[in-house]
């Protein structure tokens, strides 16, 4: 399993755990105790840190893909064939075949 997929699964599990914890700790008036709020904040920080790590790895993959592309196109014509003659472009002056 790729590191990126593994981190996404960890983040999802951490987020589901944090939501379940918050729902379980709410009192009848919708408030949570200071201790539970602190614990939830720690869980949320873990989710945030995982998100940052995932974003770093995604940027790294994107850069790897971009930088692995060739910088120039490969030669597709035959190097021994004079391309200018194929197109009908005649050289003029001292570069012409007549001059040689």
Number of helices: 3
The N- to C-terminal Cα distance equals 66 Å
Main β-sheet: number of strands, strand sense, barrel status?
A: none
* Shape descriptor: rod-shaped
What are the low-pLDDT stretches, counting only 5+ consecutive residues below 50?
Answer: none
Total number of strands: 0
What structural category characterises the helix and strand content?
A: mainly alpha
**Cα radius of gyration in angstroms:** 32 Å
> Which percent band covers the strand fraction?
under 5%
pLDDT averaged over residues: 85
Percent of residues in helices comes to: 55-70%
Order of helices and strands: HHH
Topology at a glance:
Elements: H1 3-25, H2 34-67, H3 83-86
Helix pairs in contact: 1-2
Explain what the structure shows.
The chain has a domain at 3-67. Helix content is 61%, strand content 0%. The chain has 100 residues and is mainly α. The mean pLDDT is 85. It comes from Streptococcus canis. Residues 83-94 have a biased composition (Basic and acidic residues). Residues 62-100 are annotated as: Disordered. Residues 66-81 have a biased composition (Polar residues). This is Phage major capsid protein.
Outline of this structure?
Residues 66-81 have a biased composition (Polar residues). This protein has helices spanning 3-25, 34-67, 83-86. It is mostly helical and 100 residues long.
């Amino acid at each position: 399993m790729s590191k990126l997929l593994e981190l996404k699964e960890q983040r999802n599990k951490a987020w589901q755990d944090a939501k379940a914890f918050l729902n379980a700790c709410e009192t009848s008036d919708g408030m949570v105790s200071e201790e539970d709020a602190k614990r939830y904040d720690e869980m949320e920080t873990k989710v945030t840190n995982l998100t940052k790590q995932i974003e770093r790895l995604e940027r790294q993959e994107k850069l790897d893909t971009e930088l692995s592309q060739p910088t120039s196109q490969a030669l597709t014509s035959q190097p021994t064939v004079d391309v200018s003659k194929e197109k009908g472009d005649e050289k003029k002056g001292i570069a012409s075949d007549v001059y040689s």
